[in-house]
Amino acid sequence: MTNFHEVSFPVPLALAATGGPERRTEVVNLASGAEVRNAVWAGSRRRWDVGSAALKLDALQDLVAFFEARGGRLYGFRFRDALDDRSCAAGEVPSATDQRIGTGDGVATRFQLVKAYGDHQRRILKPVAGSVIVAVDGVTAEFSLDATTGEVTLDAAPAPGGVVTAGYRFDCPVRFDTDRLDITLEGFGAGKALRVPLVELIG
Predict the structure, then answer these.
(1) Phi-psi sector, 57: left (phi>0), alpha (psi -120 to 50), beta
(2) pLDDT of the residue at 158
């Protein structure tokens, strides 16, 4: 992923975020009154707005400094979505059997972290280092992690048919979706950024 800084958006600012997944669907209305729907995107893309909440001036200064360091829309960064940041349900502790990430063939050792939402699988590109655990057929396995791509490499190739699973916490790769910040002072020592849109980067 090019033009990306492996730094995290300040968590206190992220807690006020509004947003979620977006899909692109094309709907064609037929003469009969029926409609045909086609998915333009294979998956979803998430958007958030981290503005509008009243903040102390030091938090606003942190936001401005972070925005300037990223060059507005130029560089991506990590963002922690409090609604969806782990391989298991919110509030639970990830386990090595949370998500199926592959099946052994006796040769392959590299597997991409993914998270299933029904039949849809989302690639996890920015796992939190130190949070990932992997198992083969339910037995914890030794591995190395590329925390910049979400790929794990097992020390030994799983036997054919071996079920490879993983648990983890993760960040979402995003960028600012604006090159401008509008900040207003609300009172003594406080203010707000009117709009700070973020958009997920699809790698």
Answers:
(1) alpha
(2) 97
